[in-house]
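Supplementary Text 2. Reproducibility record for the structural model of the 207-residue chain.

All settings were left at their defaults, and a single model was retained for analysis rather than an ensemble. We include the record here because the model underlies the residue-level annotations in Supplementary Table 4.
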Amino acid sequence: MAIKIGITGGIGSGKSVVSRLLEIMGIPVYISDTEAKRITNTDEVIRRGLCSLVGHEVFQNGELNRPLLASYMFGNPEHIKEVNEIIHPQVKEDFHQWAIRQQENQPLVGMESAILIEAGFRGEVDFLVMVYAPLEVRVERAVKRDGSSRELVMKRIEAQMSDEVKRNHADFVIVNDDETPLIPQVLELISLLSKNNHYLCSAKKNN
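Retained model, structure tokens:
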């Protein structure tokens, strides 16, 4: 039975780097953002739900009309909630099926999601890892990576759950501040999980 690791962190924290390191070390990781985009284009439940909510023009030539959906959601928490209620359950199910396929040969599998807690995915994982970086480091990374303005990046950060709340939910914190070496922290995480694998499996069976 595979132990499921949740990997979360805010914009620019470097959770993708941590996920890549885990994959290099032999632990498969489900990248929620990438898979959600795939599922949104292919899953009939999502397609019907979004068409009912936004209109049939939300899909054009079989592809999601992202600008239209973004316009529908922008600045409207109720619309965001409605869209998430259509997409998130299907992503959860896809992750569940993916994990089942992996766990025959893998003692550990991961799920990376910036909104793992907010989306209600916390119950899908057994152990939650938060990737932390100081605010200024995160902003600089996001500006460079996305070509966005500092103001836009700050708005996106402010819309996310705070690091303090994420830290309170986390079982393990990896510091990615461009000064603290990452690999020793990831190795420590894997060692901790390997030592506690029997305990976590027993806890899963008893829940």
